[in-house]
Amino acid sequence: MQAPAVPAVQQQQQHCPISVTSSGSRFTTPAVVQAFRLSSSCFFHSSSSSLRILRSRADQPLRRALSIPHHRIEAMASGQHAPISESAAWADLKQHVKTIEGTHLRNLMQDNNRCEELIKEYDGIVVDLSRQRVIHDTVDKLLNLAEEAKLKEKIDQMFDGVHINETENRSVLHAALRAPRDEVINCDGQNVVPAVWDVLDKIDAFSDQIRSGSWLGSTGKPLTDVVAIGIGGSFLGPLFVHTAMQTEPGCAQAAKGRRLRFLANVDPIDVARALLDLNQETTLVVIVSKTFTTAETMLNARTVRTWITSALGVEAVSKHMVAVSTNLKLVKEFGIDPANAFGFWDWVGGRYSVCSAVGVLPLALQYGFSHVKKFLQGAWSIDDHFRSAPLESNLPVLLGLMSVWNVSFLGCPARAILPYCQALAKLAPHIQQVSMESNGKGVSLDGVPLPFGTGEIDFGEPGTNGQHSFYQLIHQGRVIPCDFIGIIKSQQSVYLKGEQVSNHDELMCNFFAQADALAYGKTREELVAEKVPEALIPHKMFSGNRQSLSILLPNLTPYTVGQLLALYEHRVAVQGWIWGINSFDQWGVELGKSLAGKVRTQMNAARTKTQPLSGFNYSTTTLLTRYLQGKTQLLYPDPHDVFPSNVLPGFEK
Ligand SMILES: O=P(O)(O)OC[C@H]1O[C@](O)(CO)[C@@H](O)[C@@H]1O
Fold first, then answer.
1. Protein residue closest via CA to atom 16 of ligand 1
2. Average pLDDT of the chain to the nearest whole number
3. Under a CB-based contact definition with an 8 Å cutoff, are residues 608 and 636 in contact?
């Protein structure tokens, strides 16, 4: 039998005699290699003498033996950090995977002490982590990883207004948006809380004027309908909260006679849908854009402005259009009175902006400010917990660590968000942006390519709808860690005579059943005992051992919606901090945007001057040509100011 090949690095370790002397210490191979490797985390993060050794000429055999590239050593010397995957805590968890692979949730769930330890509670929220593939040691090791990543320091830095969004040189202070009036949160030496409350007070007064009818449209009618134009973070968060509040009895009562619509997509179909059956005279338009430059939002804003002015005249803009932005200069240039603009700050990331005027204004217009204030209070309850609770009982921290465990160690790149509550139908799309735009990164904060994947693929649907859709794959196909979210007291109650349980209880029976079905599965023995025909047994077997976690809320009110939001926001940040990435920038969305600009220029030239396309590859040229040759509803070069009325009801010339 042939001897197994010795890896190159190992050969170097075996054959290359290394002797490095520094500060009176003598290092020899293989002990030195081993020691350096084992203590890699502290070595990488702090040991300047180790770095000196590695940078010196004499270190070269050691450098080769450790297989540390030259650029990495220079990077470390200039203050860059090694990826967390090179730390001892990470290696320990990698090792620990083997232990976990020898367990099954069916057995782990028998251990009541373990389960008790993994069920956490804070301010009415119960988080059950017992169906995660973890044992006591796993949590300890994950907490070591958190320490290695300096998680507590990162949390403190966020609340202290440090510019942790380094690539944009900004603080990350969305928590300040929901801070009580008397809280002090500094950014660049200034307490931002008073400025936050100035805007909230302005929204309170303005929304009250609109809702009470003391602010009237240009023809003297009350403004009962609101169209909020915005995309991405300027849309998904507000839509999530609106959907969650819509059926809550107090909110529904407060919204009587009012409509709130969102217009996000630049697709004219979305314009038609958003404006369907609306009357310009009774409609208030809120343009929501942090930058006020987003192409889709600005075209939609111009389109809807045309819809308003074509019916009511240019003067109507001051009564029918307001804006939310950090770019008040562009708001003014668009023609909106600065008095009708609601500002926020560059330390609020778009996907974290629902608690700024981005969400608060449209929601206050629909439900009244008092309800929205409770939503902010709920979010702050979690903020306060996040910044002060010890890591081992800190809900967002534990949730984040479980996700890192699943993604980076158990090899599960996706996560399903499964609220058993129709009012949370827009939670998954919102968290999809919060999570995937934040953590879908390829390089560390230092700009070094990461040797592991970050982020996860988030998707979800409310139960039980999802059960009749993609759960098949979750039960018998791929392993997708699931978040089950249940509500104790439903927003609506229905209990029919003669039924075994109320409608909400029926829903929740599924919530409880699914988590155990995934954890336990179904064995061959059980199927045999049920006398299932042999040929069907493989098809009816469930491997089980599929991890999930459950979040149980006492009810779904504005307050708990706020809690849920903050829980997810901070969980995503925790994951990013562990992975060592910047969760608060989003450079990855830029390339597509600029290429669309190139297509736009050529499309205009082709349509108006019949100029041939140039600079595109064969495939794009072929499809673009086919598109340009095809039938279109609109004629160039003779643009209409409005769309034909059959396409867009309300666009009558
Ligand atoms: O609010 P804005 O500036 O219009 O940006 C909208 C969205 O576009 C993005 O910049 C990128 O898609 C998001 O981060 C942001 O929420």
1. 233
2. 90
3. yes
Per residue in 315-373, pLDDT (tens digit) is 999 999 999 999 999 999 999 999 999 999 999 999 999 999 999 999 999 999 999 99
pLDDT tops 60 at residue 626: yes
The distance in angstroms from the start CA to the end CA of the chain is: 88
How much is the ipTM here? 0.98
**Superfamily of domain covering 105-164+389-493+504-582:** Glucose-6-phosphate isomerase like protein; domain 1 (3.40.50.10490)
Specify the 3-state DSSP secondary structure of 231: coil
CA separation for the pair 98, 141 (Å, rounded):
14
636: buried, middle or exposed (CB in 10 Å: 19+, 13-18, 0-12)?
A: middle
Is domain 186-375 classified as CATH 3.40.50.10490?
A: yes
C-alpha angle 464-466-469 in degrees, rounded to nearest 5:
125
Set 593, 598, 609, 640: catalytic member: 593
HEC readout, 128-165: ECCCCCCCHHHHHHHHHHHHHCCHHHHHHHHHCCCCCE
Instruction: Give the residue extent of every domain in the chain.
Output: 105-164+389-493+504-582, 186-375, 590-646
Contact of 416 with 442, CB cutoff 8 Å: no
Q: Using CA atoms, how far apart are residues 41 and 46, in angstroms rounded to an integer?
A: 8
CA of 288 to the centre of ligand 1 (A): 10
**Residue 287: per-residue pLDDT:** 98
* Per-residue buried b or exposed e for 487-507, using 16+ beta carbons within 10 Å of the residue's own CB: beebbeeeeeeeeeeeebeeb
Specify whether the CB–CB gap between 158 and 584 falls below 8 A.
Answer: no
Answer whether 291 contacts ligand 1 (Cβ < 6 A). yes
Q: What is the reported pLDDT for 631?
A: 79
Does the active-site annotation cover 86?
no
What gap in Å lies between CA 434 and CA 571, rounded to an integer?
A: 10
| pLDDT band (50, 70, 90) for residue 55 | low
Catalytic site includes residue 593: yes
Class of residue 523 by CB neighbours under 10 A (exposed 0-12, middle 13-18, buried 19+): middle
468 is catalytic: yes
Query: According to the model, what pLDDT value does residue 49 have?
Result: 54
Does 287 contact ligand 1 (Cβ within 6 A)?
no
Q: Which atom of ligand 1 is nearest to the CA of 230?
A: 4
pLDDT exceeds cutoff 90 at 235: yes
Residue type (1 letter), 264: A
Mean pLDDT value across residues 224-253: 98
What is the 230 CA–ligand 1 centroid distance (Å)?
8
Percent of the chain with pLDDT over 70: 85
Residue 490 to residue 583: CA distance in whole angstroms: 34
User: What's the pLDDT band for 19 if we cut at 50, 70, 90?
Assistant: very low
Residue 81 has a pLDDT of 80
CA distance 145 to 575: 11
Give the rounded percent of residues in the chain with a pLDDT score beyond 90: 82
3 state DSSP class of 549: strand
- Overall average pLDDT of the 122-145 stretch: 98
The torsion of the CA quartet 169, 175, 181, 186, rounded to 10 degrees, works out to -30
